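dude i think i finally got it to work??
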Amino acid sequence: MKQLESITPRDTDFARWYTDVVTKSGLTSYSNVKGCMIMPPYGNELWENMRDELGRRIKKTGAKNVTLPLLIPESMFQSEKDHVEGFAPEFLMVTHSGEEKLAERLVLRPTSEVLFCDYFKNNIHSYRDLPMKLNQWANIFRAEKNTRPFLRTTEFFWQEGHTMHETESEAREMTMQIHKLYNDYLVDTLALPFVEGKKTESEKFAGAVETWTREVMMYDGVALQTGTSHYLGDGFSKAFDITFQNKDKGLSHPHYTSWGITTRMIGAIVMTHGDDRGLILPPKVAPIQAVVVPIMMHKAGVLDAAKELEKSISKTLRTHIDTTDNTPGWKYSEWEMRGVPIRIEYGPRDIENKTCVVVRRDTGEKITIAVDALKDGLPHILEAIHENMYDRALKRQKKMTHKASTLEEIGEIARSKPGFIQAPWCGCEKSERMLKETISLTSRCILEEYPEDTKLKCAISGKQAKYLVVWAKAY
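look at this
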């Protein structure tokens, strides 16, 4: 039980529990650069699996992968005013080459709109070049003051898509296509429920016309933004003088979208699904889907039989066999902490009976299965684990979502009931800012827009309500 004792219980100190889990499970470790993390093989394999599945979905939209520079000339970054103002506090700069001061400072990319716009300018000439759909897997730098692995780091990894379109309607359609793609990915691949909607004006992406998001509730009731899709209009096109010859032989500015999901999704998986024993990883992205633990390895034939068992199921699953000399109990704790969905216990009695014991990480349930039935049975068990993980998280989200109609109710809920608060809002940024400054609640997304003749009143200002908004504390 050594590993279990080293993890702080969630309800004792959730922040400490999170740090214990992501470091002790092998997802990450600290580097010598403040705010920059190391992803060891286990964490990297998890991200690779997440990336591969998301990448497959993105390619189905027609987007092609590209690679653009890490460094952006400062003058280029200044070309879009609203964009620069939104990211200015997060800039990291390269100022010298060796001892020599650079003639122009270089921005370590906090996002890549300006780089893509430069590419689009040189490669879009006619309506026949549109739509142009590009995607990049890259590292990003932002000067975060308070860092935490995966959630807020100076350097992080992400996927960022950028597309240019002939018309506004086509660009808006692309924005919503990606929004739905992210929604489906979270549910189908990561077993993560969420609330979805449009960001308010103050919370939308710098330079965007509209930003669409999904917000996942963590175990402690705090929201985590997980993937955004932006309709950027033609503002970037005008700022960078991107034009194309339209069908009427005139010149037009294309309409722009950008969208991305980052490694903070790993943090979402940990904080939504994990428990006091450690990680619980969604089966579809787990680096190891099933681990075989031989029992009484010293007995003749056991290790060979266990290896043969692992070899047979490795044809359909990502597997591992633990042949270390640690005790079975220590091994159980180790693989539970690392979130492996299925553990297979296999010893002399199992070999004799031609069965094995399958243990589910999500419930701890032990199932005795004939060895011959493993190949067909394990995928069904993995699917059941995925569904249970999603249903369990959705049930918690619903239980911890509250409704409020007055400022007093919002304050009382925020003080006593962690989670999401649904409340009508007038659309006034002053009232939105007041909630953020007084009780640390931010607008996470607009769930719906009320008709103009609604009789509902804003829970904050008392004015006529325009939107139903989800308010929450956020990472």
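The CA atoms of residues 400 and 417 lie 8 Å apart.
im so relieved honestly
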